[in-house]
Write a structure and sequence with these properties.
The relative contact order is 0.11. This protein has two domains: 2-275, Beta-galactosidase, Chain A, domain 5 (Distorted Sandwich), CATH 2.70.98; 286-594, Aldolase class I (TIM Barrel, Alpha-Beta Barrel). The protein has twelve helices and 31 strands. By secondary structure, it is of the alpha+beta class. The structure holds 4-nitrophenyl alpha-D-galactopyranoside (9PG). The site of 4-nitrophenyl alpha-D-galactopyranoside has 13 residues, from loops. 4-nitrophenyl alpha-D-galactopyranoside is lined by residues 150, 174, 293, 327-328, 365, 399, 437, 479-480, 498, 520-521.
Length: 617
C-alpha cells in the first residue's frame, strides 16, 4: 500500500491488487472512488487485457514532487517490469497541492519484437460499491457533454434514456464519436471528454474526464441503475504500436465539485485551459457581425454580400457589426476551394477588398477536411480520401443532400491541400477571419495512410497544421469540431447545433420522426447547447452560439426569436445576424440592436448541473 495526500484529497494505491482509492479529507461529507485500470490490445490475432488485476511483478514505486501547469504535484509513479508478452507499463498518479484535483496517466511501451494494436485504455472502472458521493443515497443525475460543436449536451435523470440520433449513417458520422458507446437503456449514459455524476440531494458531484484530447478521444460512462458505477476510457482506435515504441495517455482527472458553488465547473475548466498553456485574458473580445448562411444558404451570390455590406455600412451607427462573413456557397463544391460558382465570377478576393474598404473585417467559411463526392479533387487525388479497409471512401455524413467523404490527414499531400485552402484564404484572398467547418471529418474511422496514429492524434495534428497555415494574425472560428481537440488553437468556437428557420428539426419541411433528433439544425437544439455550454466562454475560447435570425418570415414565432436573441445575448458570446439586412423591418432591426454590442461576460447559470432544465422543447 502506498499513499499520498494533500489537505483536500488522499490517494491509496494497492499495486498488488491493481486497485486505488481516492478519498476526500476534511469536511463533513466524505466522498470516495475505488477503482481499477485495464488496457486492451491485439497481438498476433489475439486479444489481451493487461493491468486489470495486479500491477506486479517487479514494480518500482516512488513518491515525489513535480512541477506542473497546475502548481506543484505530489506523485506516485509505478514503473512495472515488462510482462511475458513484452509490454511494459508505467502509471503516474498525482494530486495537485493547491487544488483539489486528482490526475493520472498511463504509459505503455512495446518491448517485444511484434507490433500490437491498442483497442482501449481503461483509465478507471469503479469496483463494486466503490463510488460514494455521500453516506446517504441521493437523487442522482448525469451531465453528458456532446462530442463536437453540434452534439447534444444535457443532464439526465436515471429514468431518462440518453438522447441519440435515429438516422444512423446520415447523422452519426458528424455528431457521434464512434468510440463512445450509445446507451439505449435508462440509467446508462455516456459523455465525451468529461462527464459529471451529480447528487442533487446533497448538492455534490464528481467530474470524470481528461485535461486534453491530444492523444486519445476520452469517454466517460455511468450506470445509475442501483449503486452508481463509473468508467473512463481513452480510445486506442486500433492504432499500431510498433516494437520499441510507446504511447502515453492524456492526463485523466477526477474532481469532486460543490454544487452550492455558483461556478462549480471552474476548477476543471480552468485546469484544462492551463494544460493547453492558454491565457484566457488574451482572447479577443466577442465579435459581432453578419453571416450569409441562414438567409441565402448556398444560393448566395456576390451581389447579395455587396447589398448587405452596403446596408450594414449605412446602418453602422445604430447597428454596430464588425465582421462580414461569407459562408458556404461561393466554392464549386466543398473540396474544390479554388474553383468558384457562377454567382462569384471573380471569386471572393474582390469582396474581401470591398468589405475592408467599408471598414469591416472580411470573414470566409471553409471546410478543409470534408470532400463533396462531386468535387474534382475526388478524381484528381483519389489517394487523398480516407478509405475503409475495403478501399471505399468513408462516409462523412449526409450533408448538402449527399453522402460526403473526408480527407486522410495522415497522407502528407492531403494535409498540405487542406492547409493550402486556409493559407490562400488568409494570405492571398485577404480574409483575416476564417470559419473552419466540418472539422470532425478529420477524426473519422478508416484505414489511414499512417496506421500508427489514434484518431485524436490525426485530428489534433490536422488542427495544429491549419492553425499554422492561418498564421497567428488570423482569427479562427471552429465549427463542427470535437471540442476537446480544439482547445488552445481557435479564438472562437461554435458550441451549438445550427439555428434554423424552424424550432424543431426538419428535412424539406418534413418534421415527423425528425423532431426528436438531438443534433440536427434547429433553433431548439441550438438553444440547448447555447445554455449548457455557456461556462466555456472566455475559458477555452470565445463562444459562438450561432446566428440570430431576426426577420418576420423565417418560420420562427416572435417568441422564438426573442428567446434566441435573449440566449445569444445573455450567454456573452459572439452576436452574428443572418438575415437580408436591407429587408429587415424597423421592429426586427430593433431586436438585433438590443443584443449589440455583445455583453461578452460569462454568465452564472444557477442550477444548471442539478436540474434537468433547461430541457428545451
Ligand atoms: C454551411 C453550414 C453553415 C453552418 C454550419 C454547417 O447535420 N447536418 O447535416 C448539418 C448540415 C449543415 C450544418 C450543420 C449540420 O451547418 O454549422 O453554420 O456554415 O454548415 O454548409
Amino acid at each position: 500500500m502506498i499513499s499520498v495526500e494533500t489537505p483536500a484529497l488522499q490517494l491509496l494505491c494497492q499495486p498488488e491488487q491493481g486497485q486505488w482509492t481516492l478519498a476526500t479529507l476534511g469536511g463533513t461529507n466524505p466522498r470516495r472512488v475505488k477503482a481499477r485500470l485495464g488496457i486492451t490490445y491485439h497481438r498476433e490475432g489475439e486479444l489481451y487485457e493487461d493491468l486489470a488485476n495486479s500491477w506486479l511483478p517487479g514494480e518500482v514505486s516512488e513518491t515525489g514532487q513535480a512541477a506542473s501547469p497546475h502548481g506543484p504535484l505530489r506523485q506516485i509513479r509505478i514503473a512495472m517490469q515488462p510482462n511475458p508478452a513484452g509490454m511494459q507499463y508505467e502509471i503516474t498518479f498525482a494530486l495537485t497541492e493547491r487544488l483539489p484535483l486528482f490526475l493520472w496517466q498511463l504509459k505503455m511501451s512495446n518491448l517485444s519484437a511484434k507490433p500490437v494494436w491498442v483497442v482501449h485504455l481503461e483509465m478507471l472502472h469503479t469496483s463494486a460499491g466503490g463510488l460514494s458521493l455521500h453516506p446517504q443515497p441521493g437523487d442522482l443525475g448525469f451531465f453528458s457533454h456532446g462530442w463536437q460543436s453540434w452534439s447534444y449536451s444535457g443532464l439526465y435523470s436515471p429514468d431518462q434514456t440518453q438522447r441519440r440520433t435515429r438516422l444512423g449513417p446520415i447523422q452519426s458520422p458528424p455528431a457521434v464519436n464512434p468510440s463512445t458507446p450509445v446507451p439505449r437503456r435508462p440509467g446508462h449514459y455516456s459523455s465525451d471528454f468529461y462527464g459529471i455524476l451529480v447528487d442533487r440531494t446533497h448538492r455534490t458531484a464528481l467530474l470524470a474526464g481528461f485535461l486534453s484530447q491530444q492523444q486519445q478521444f476520452g469517454t466517460a460512462e455511468v450506470w445509475m441503475d442501483g449503486r452508481p458505477r463509473l468508467r473512463l476510457m481513452a480510445s486506442g482506435d486500433g492504432a499500431r504500436l510498433d516494437p520499441g515504441s510507446s504511447l502515453t495517455t492524456d492526463w485523466a482527472t477526477l474532481a469532486f465539485l460543490d454544487l452550492n458553488d455558483p461556478d462549480p465547473l471552474a476548477l476543471y475548466l480552468d485546469a484544462v485551459a492551463r494544460q493547453h498553456g492558454m491565457d484566457p485574458t488574451l482572447l479577443p473580445d466577442s465579435p459581432s457581425g453578419w453571416c450569409s448562411w441562414y438567409y441565402y444558404f448556398n444560393h448566395l451570390k456576390a451581389e447579395d454580400v455587396e447589398r448587405n455590406l452596403a446596408e450594414a455600412a449605412r446602418r453602422r451607427p445604430e447597428l454596430p457589426l464588425s465582421i462580414i462573413q461569407i459562408d458556404d456557397g461561393f466554392e464549386r463544391f466543398p473540396g474544390d476551394w479554388f474553383a468558384f460558382r457562377p454567382g462569384f465570377p471573380q471569386g471572393v478576393e474582390p469582396l474581401a477588398k470591398q468589405i475592408r474598404a467599408s471598414g469591416f473585417t472580411p470573414g470566409l467559411w471553409l471546410a478543409p477536411f470534408i470532400v463533396h463526392p462531386r468535387a474534382a479533387l475526388v478524381h484528381e487525388h483519389p489517394d487523398y480520401l480516407l478509405r475503409s479497409e475495403r478501399g471505399r471512401p468513408v462516409n462523412a455524413g449526409f450533408i448538402w443532400d449527399v453522402f460526403t467523404n473526408a480527407l486522410d490527414l495522415t497522407h502528407p499531400g492531403a494535409l498540405e491541400y487542406a492547409c493550402r485552402s486556409v493559407d490562400t484564404a488568409a494570405h492571398e484572398w485577404g480574409f483575416p477571419y476564417l470559419k473552419l467547418d466540418f472539422l470532425y471529418a478529420g477524426a473519422l474511422r478508416g484505414a489511414h495512410h499512417d496506421p500508427r496514429l489514434t484518431r485524436a492524434q490525426v485530428l489534433r495534428r490536422g488542427l495544429e497544421a491549419l492553425r499554422q497555415a492561418a498564421g497567428a494574425e488570423t482569427t479562427l472560428l471552429g465549427c463542427g469540431v470535437p471540442l476537446g481537440s480544439a482547445i488552445g488553437l481557435f479564438e472562437a468556437m461554435r458550441i451549438s447545433a445550427d439555428v434554423s428557420e424552424s424550432w424543431l428539426p426538419n428535412y424539406r419541411k418534413v418534421q415527423v420522426v425528425l423532431s426528436a433528433e438531438p443534433h440536427m439544425p434547429s433553433t431548439r437544439n441550438a438553444l440547448q447547447n447555447i445554455l449548457l455550454r455557456a461556462p466555456l466562454h472566455r475559458r477555452w475560447w470565445v463562444n459562438d452560439p450561432d446566428c440570430l435570425l431576426s426577420r418576420e418570415d423565417s418560420g420562427l414565432t416572435l417568441e422564438e426569436v426573442h428567446t434566441l436573441a435573449t440566449a445569444i445575448s445573455m450567454t456573452g458570446g459572439s452576436v452574428f445576424l443572418s438575415d437580408d439586412v436591407p429587408a429587415l423591418s424597423p421592429e426586427r432591426l430593433r431586436i438585433a440592436q438590443c443584443v449589440l454590442p455583445p455583453i461578452d461576460r460569462r454568465p452564472l447559470l444557477p442550477g444548471l448541473k442539478d436540474t434537468p432544465r433547461p430541457a428545451c422543447g
